[in-house]
Amino acid sequence: MGELSMTFQKTDKSIDLRNRWGPARGFLLFGLVFALSITFSDATPVARERVIAIKAGKIQTVAQGEIENGVILIKNDRIAEIGAQVVIPPDAEVLDFQGKFVMPGIVSPDSNLGIYKKQKSKFFSWSRMPEGAGKNVAFYPVLYSIDPEHPDYSLALKNGFTTLAVSPPPAGISGLGAVIRPEGDKLEDILVKDKAFLKISVYVNTPFWNMLKGSLEEAQRLLDEQKKKAEEKAKPKEGKGKDVAKDKAKEEAQKEEPTISESAKVFVDVVDGKTPLLAECNGPDAVLHLLELLSGYPKVKLIIKGGTEVYKAGLLLKEKNIPLILEPGIDVRSDFFQPIAERTNYVLKCQTLDLKLAFQAPGNVEEQIHLLDYLNELSQCGLKKEVLLKGVTLVPAQLLGIDSLVGSLEKGKKADLIVLKNDPFDSVPIIEKVILGGKIVQ
User: Residue 245 pLDDT > 60, yes or no?
Assistant: First the structure.
């Protein structure tokens, strides 16, 4: 009986112990759940993927032809799928543009939008060398002069320009151009590519050629020195003089490197083929002089922005596979001795030579936004639709080295596109919507 009572006493104690800790366990569990809820509530939520499906009557991809009654599936800011049989996810936002024409956003290869331009003098100048022709400001990055909120950019975007290559003002060796997207509050928001090319304005005069020639020669000398140093460094050290050679190399390394100007550094990249050279040449003589000067620099990636007579140097440009930027138009000339206007379709002449063409509308923003109108007129004058279309999309993107991002509607590229009422080359161009990075901006 005594053993039994002792057993019951132990059992009662164990029961009392559980009853005493039961409420405490509940409080501990509640505290743990509360702490976890605070932790997860403070954590940054995972952004939900934005999915948009665009239905269109006709999609002009540029790279892969046209798609009738197709779908463009956009995830965040990129094209995820494009075609006639694309399956639209149930959670996608559908934008129905049936009966409309969709094409890539316009890529401007050499714009001056948003950059201060000095007014030309109203008086005739007897100077044979334009102001600024003898300046070398190769180190000047135009990016520092760009105002992201400049009204030029919003107007350009409204009219289908989704990518702009902005050049510095003409000044002989003018400086470094940049590529931007015309929407954003800060430079980092709009910047696509800094130091995208070196812009020069070619003048047929001795001071300019001496300046350009000297810059190229200095850059080549610096490259040769760099190559020589790299080869010497790579040579194996042998024999008894190994330690002596090692000490000598150490002493040379401790010597101060010669100071290289910022302009020289830019030209080193040009001569080495890392930075394209965009040369504005008004006439064929400027083109011929420039090609002769650059014949000793095979790595230079040259782009010519030409005037109305540049087609006269077209055979040489074709032979050397040099792309050309043109203003879309027809040259009309008349004077006192020739009262009947002479019309020259210089763009058609360049097309006949099978040159690689990009188009840049002239003038200020009010003129440049009519680019599609100019192209429509040219299409009525014998220009191929494919040449005109690629000239404002894929070709300028290739020249700027950004064709992996823009220039055509393909899987993986930026969702930059224009929705038009009809094919802009068959009727008057009427833009209804502009989409930048998958977002409707107009």
Answer: no
